[in-house]
Design brief:
Length: 300
């Protein structure tokens, strides 16, 4: 298949460290969005909960102050950024849906600033340092891609990236790429071998989603050390390593693990069709034999 201009999506990724000051974080995000658009980006993806520190290290009701209703300041700021720069923008928010009801929500803004769609994080972790169940209600919008002017985006969030079912559902509904805003890192107390195993597993499972579904994957993480303000743990050293993979899992870009990074990466959407012709995994699926996948556990 010949490469066509509209098949090439120049994609900007924003890998930042963050402070306690929301306005400072936003100003830096907006500057990066503008710079990436000037470099030709048509799509820009930010990391998970990019307006604040990763507050889920502790269970603290004071952190609900970061939540915002829709519409609100968050949607106003990033809607304007998408419109002013003429880009499709994937942003990540702490959504206040109603009193006592909150979601970890990705919002996709169109080039005119309108909301193309949203995705509420479906898989919610509850592990030391990642106490998200205290803050977020599991998503109720399902796994449905979001149609935009640059393609159909399968937007998921962080912990969703470990689940092949989520990626497959997006692919089966016509997603043209998988996108994962993310906040993940190391426990500073782990040794170097354990750190390497964890990061490699994170990269490998997402490259596997690219291969299994014949789709590019965009995964954008935060970077830098964030203290556990409760003093219970040693904090989290977010490992960056944001990356873009092609539909055979090949690296198109890999960011450093120890510093902020903005980059524009070309993604050829037409390549997915070629790869799916060579590797027809969707054709050969035994959909007649997968009924057990909806069970919690199977016993003979």
């Amino acid at each position: 298949m010949n490469r066509k201009e509209h098949d090439i999506v120049k994609t900007g990724i924003i890998q930042h460290s963050f402070s306690e000051d929301v306005n400072t974080n936003r100003a830096r995000n907006l500057a990066s969005i503008s710079n990436l658009a000037e470099e030709g980006a048509r799509l820009v993806v930010m990391s998970e909960l990019h307006d604040s520190l990763y507050f889920c290290q502790t269970e603290d009701v004071d952190n609900f102050r970061y939540a915002e209703p829709f519409p609100g300041d968050f949607t106003e700021v990033y809607s304007k950024a998408a419109r002013d720069n003429g880009i499709v923008l994937v942003a990540s928010s702490f959504e206040r849906r109603a009193p006592g009801l909150y979601h970890n929500t990705a919002i996709v803004f169109e080039t005119d600033g309108s909301i193309a769609g949203r995705y509420r994080k479906m898989h919610i972790p509850d592990d030391p340092g990642f106490y998200e169940k205290f803050y977020f209600t599991p998503g109720d919008l399902g796994f449905h891609p979001i149609d935009t002017s640059i393609g159909r985006l399968g937007v998921l969030v962080c912990w969703d990236q470990w689940y092949p079912e989520a990626a497959r559902m997006m692919a089966l509904e016509g997603a043209e790429m998988l996108i994962y805003p993310t906040a993940i890192g190391w426990n500073p107390d782990d040794d170097d071998d354990e750190k390497r195993r964890q990061r490699d597993a994170w990269i490998t499972v997402q490259r596997g989603h690219a291969v299994a579904n014949g789709l590019p994957v965009v995964s954008v993480n935060r970077v830098g050390f964030e203290e556990d303000l409760s003093g219970v743990s040693s904090g989290i050293d977010f490992w960056g390593s944001s990356f873009v993979a092609g539909p055979q899992g090949e690296f198109l870009y890999l960011a450093p693990d120890d510093k902020s990074d903005d980059a524009v990466v070309e993604i050829d959407l037409a390549r997915s069709e070629n790869v799916r012709q060579w590797w027809p995994f969707l054709r050969d699926r035994r959909i007649d034999a997968y009924g057990g996948i909806t069970q919690r556990y199977l016993r003979h």
